Every structure is written in C-alpha cells, then in structure tokens.
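Changelog note: in this version the structure field was regenerated for every chain. One regenerated record is shown below for reference.
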Amino acid sequence: MASVARTVLGILIAAALIYWVLRGIDPKELGSTLANASWSLLALAALVNLSHNVFRVFRWRWLLEPTRAGVPFRPMFAAVILGYMTTLAGARVGELVRPALLSAREKLPLGPTVGTIVADRLLDGFSIVTLFAVGSATASFAPEAAPMAAKIRSWAWIALAFVVLGLVVLALLSGAAPRLRQWLAPRSAPLRWIGGVVLGLSEGAAALRSFRRLVPIVASSLAAWVTIAAGTWLGIRSAGATVSLPDVFVLLPLLAAGIAIPTPGAAGGYHATMKFGLTTLFGVDPTHAAGAGVLMHLAVAIPIFVGGMVLLRTEKISWADMVAAAKQVRTLGRLEAAEAAS
C-alpha cells in the first residue's frame, strides 16, 4: 500500500508540475518549436550527456581504491547505467542498486561500497556548486533578474562551504573508524546500529584523505558536470533558446533539484525547473523554455533506457536481481553493528 501511495503521489506531483509548465503556452506554438528543433544538435546533446558517465566511473574507481584497487570498468559502467535506469523507471532505489549490484558482482564489502555513493553525491554537490559559483560570476542574467543574481552569488559560496565541510567530516570519520568502533562496542544496540551505519558509509570517503587520489577524484567530478552542462547547453540550443555555457552552470542546481523530485521518470520536475530557470533568470521565451525541457528530458532519458536494456541482456542481469541487490543495503546497519560489538 505504501508503494502504491508513493506512486500515486508521484503521478499527481508530475501532473501538477506539467500543468504549470504548459499553463499559458499555445499548444500550436509549442508543437512548432518541437517540430523545428535541431534534431542533429539534440542527438549530439544526448551523446555528450551520456558520455559524462565515463567520468563517473573513473571517479568511483578512485573512491573504491582503498577497498579494492583496479575494479574493472565494465561492471562499474553497467551498475551506473542500470542504477539511473531504475531511478528513471520510477523506483527510488536507483542509488542503492548501483553499489549493491557492484558489491554482489565483484564481491566488494557492502558498507564501503555504499559509502562511496554518499561521497559521490557530496562530490556531485561540490561540482555543481563550484560551477554554479563560476557561472554566476559570468552569466548573462536578464535585467529583471539582477536582484536575484546578487543573492545567487552569495548562496553559491555558502553552499560550497557546506558541501566541502561534509566531505571533510566524512574523510575524518573514515580515518577515525577503528577507534570509534572500539568506543561503540560496549554501547547500546541502537547506538551501535546508527554508529555502524555512519562508519560503514564513511569508509567510502577514505580515498579523500590521499592527495594522490583526491586530485583525480575532484578532476573527474568537475569533468563529469562540465560534460553534463555542455550536453544541456546543446539541448537547450536545439530548441531555439539562446543561452551561454555559464548560464547553464547557473541552471545546474535547479535541474538537479528537479530530477530529485520523486516523480515517475523525473517527469514534471525537470521540465518545471528548466522553464523556471530559463524564463526567470535569462529571459527566455516560455514556449522555447518549455520546449527545451521536453527535448532535453528525452535526450537524458532515452539513451539511459536503451543502454540499460542492452546491458540487462549482455550482462545477464534481471530486474529482480537489481531489486534484490538494493534490498541487501537494509542489512548494512546490522552487519556494521555486529562488527562494532565483536
């Protein structure tokens, strides 16, 4: 029942957001915008956006190096794509599928593998906010957005400080894990469970304590998000909207927030944040802004679904295998608590 309720709620949210996106837009004008779009440019946008996953795999491999060096590229790439496909299909366990699937297939310890995803998300936040800060300094804001632009510049540096703090805390916890486990051993079961989960996850950030690893991790993170921004810029321009690459850097946090809204296939949230950002910040015509959201959503989703279906067949993985792997994450707290008590 809870799953059905979440699905129904997600559909209602998506419908409300899509209604807002389309409100006041002439359907004929939107149809004309889509029909006159540059499909070759959109195809290039899809290819560029998909290619950012190569940098994600490189970053993930570096994060996993303290756990095991030289994890093969192919199973990591498959786990990344299938995790995204699971999320786009409406199952909000996509972020769990990725580490759980790799852990099961490569016999990696679950705690540190899941922990790399926590570090991964913080590094995404670092990259998004860094590019956001750079973009806000050079973006061509619409004249009426000037007061908001000043606030954006301030928020960018504050957000960057919080993300960096989170990464530092994770790295410090991973270094102090042995001592903290000894401290947890005689504590109550709930405290051991909570502490075990936190320490297990923190091990995924152990790579950040090494300068040799930190440099390629940060470089891969920034390369991934510059690639995403470049693909998004091409997709927006394919709809006839004129924006610069720094403008898209400013849009990144909005688009990431839109994808995070729990709707099936990220429908509605991505379109709404795209339209809001383009019209409010950069003065793009609402019809072209809505068209850009529709086209870029297709450019993101279709390659993931097609690639995911191919990988399910070539890697001999079933949908049930992915869901079962994700459910194994629920045992993480019990495993870590038992280790702390032993």
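Spot check on this record: The longest helix spans residues 146-175. The chain is about 80% helix and 0% strand.
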